[in-house]
Structures are given as structure tokens and as C-alpha cells.
Amino acid sequence: MSVLAIHPGAYYHIETLEAPRYRHHFDRLVRPEELPSVELSEHQVLFIPCRTPADRMAPHAAQLRAHLDQGGTIVATGETAWEAFLPAIHFTPQPTNWWWWLTEGADLGVRIAAPGHSLFEHLGQDDLTWHLHGWFNPPEGAEVLAVNEKGKPILYVDEVTTAGRMVITSLDPCFHHGSHFMPATTRFLDGFLPWMRKELDKGKSE
Questions:
Q1: Half-sphere exposure of 78 toward its Cβ, with a 13 Å CA cutoff?
Q2: Could you tell me the superkingdom of the organism this chain comes from (predicted)?
Q3: Which end of the chain, N or C, is surrounded by fewer C-beta atoms within 10 Å?
Q4: At 138, which CATH number?
Q5: E strand or H helix at 135, and its extent?
Q6: Is 101 helix (H, G, I), strand (E, B) or coil?
Q7: d(Cα 62, Cα 9) in Å, to the nearest integer?
């Protein structure tokens, strides 16, 4: 199978999806408006990067749901208004403290909730820690991988809502990596994208 990535076209999308560091993780790039011409069953994983405009994805919600119902995987990162085009997303924004790290001894409070999960063979807690935009109320049975300072989910895997799989996070690594701001976001992608290729592209049943 393969990984298809949505490419909305902003500078940080270009840096994440096209630059040499990560481009080999994606087999095909498409604009949101091109989705109707794509046979999603040819791609096990659909990757939706940070700050993909929801109004460009919402017209394709039925196609995305069909991909999930057929056993496909969708990965969606932060600040994308997921609920406009994906099922069972319940998100609560939280105030973002951009400068928490300037306080000596500060702790943003991000914690790995499932240390035995295969993702954390590639990532450590510091690689998930830069700032927070909000948290989710995942459906019962979803696997929570990381939480915020109040124990609220910020990264989870949903294999219960559909026959497929959604990997959802409020973290926004693509934006910051592409902006050359916050090294933790690059470390996150350095670990997350190889895990995505290794684990998610195999298919849910394997």
C-alpha cells in the first residue's frame, strides 16, 4: 500500500511534505480539491497535516468516511478543525501558553499515557512537548497515547468508530517544523513519520 498526503500549499506544508528530510515518507501529494479524482483504496494511509483548512476538506467528508469504513487509516495533526470532516471528533480548545519554558523548572505537563505503544519506540516525552492548543474526548474504546497537564487526551488512536483507524492529535508539528521554530517538532516528525510508514501502512488487520 502507500501513504497519500494532503498538500494545502502553505510554506510549512511545502517544507514538511516536499523537502528532502521527509518527502520519502509520502508516496503521493494531492490538494484537497483533487480528492474526488483519487481512489483512496490505493492508499492505506491518508495524512492530513497541521492547519489544513477545514473548508477545503469538509466537501470530502463522505469520501473520507468511506475510506475509513473500508479499513483505511487517516492521520490528522493539529489545528485542522477535524470535526468538520471526520467522525466522532470532540475537541475542547485551551489557552496556549507560548512561553511556559521561560520559567525556570517549568513543566508543560504533557505525559505519555501508553508507554508500551509502538510509537514510543520512536518518540520520548520531550518530543511531544512544545505547547498545547486543546484536548479531545475520544469515544469509549479509543487508545489514548498522550495527555495534557490535566490528564486530557491530546493524541489518540480510534479503531472503534469505523472499520478503519484514525490517529488524531492536537499537536501541530508540521507547522512549527516548516517554520523552523521549536526543535521538538522536528524530533516528533523524525520519529512519528517512520512509525507511520512501519506500523500504519501495513493495514489495520496485520
A1: 24
A2: Bacteria
A3: C
A4: 3.40.50
A5: strand 134-136
A6: helix
A7: 23
Segment 183-205 shows an average pLDDT of 87
Domain hosting residue 64, numbered range = 3-201
CA gap 153, 146 in Å, rounded: 6
Question: Is residue 38 a part of any domain in this protein?
Answer: yes
Does pLDDT of 205 surpass 50? no
pLDDT, position 91: 97
Q: What residues form DSSP beta bridges with 158? A: 166
For residue 6, what are the β-bridge partners? 30
Q: Is 138 among the domain residues?
A: yes
What is the DSSP annotation of 109-130? Answer: --EES-TTSGGGGT--GGGG-S
Q: Which of 175-179, 180-184, 201-205 has the lowest mean pLDDT?
A: 201-205
Residue 98 lies in a domain: yes
pLDDT of residue 204 exceeding 60, the answer is no
Question: 166 pLDDT exceeds 80?
Answer: yes
Which residue has cell 512509525? Answer: 195
Is 101 a member of any domain? yes
Question: Is 173 exposed, middle or buried, given 0-12, 13-18 or 19+ CB atoms closer than 10 A?
Answer: buried
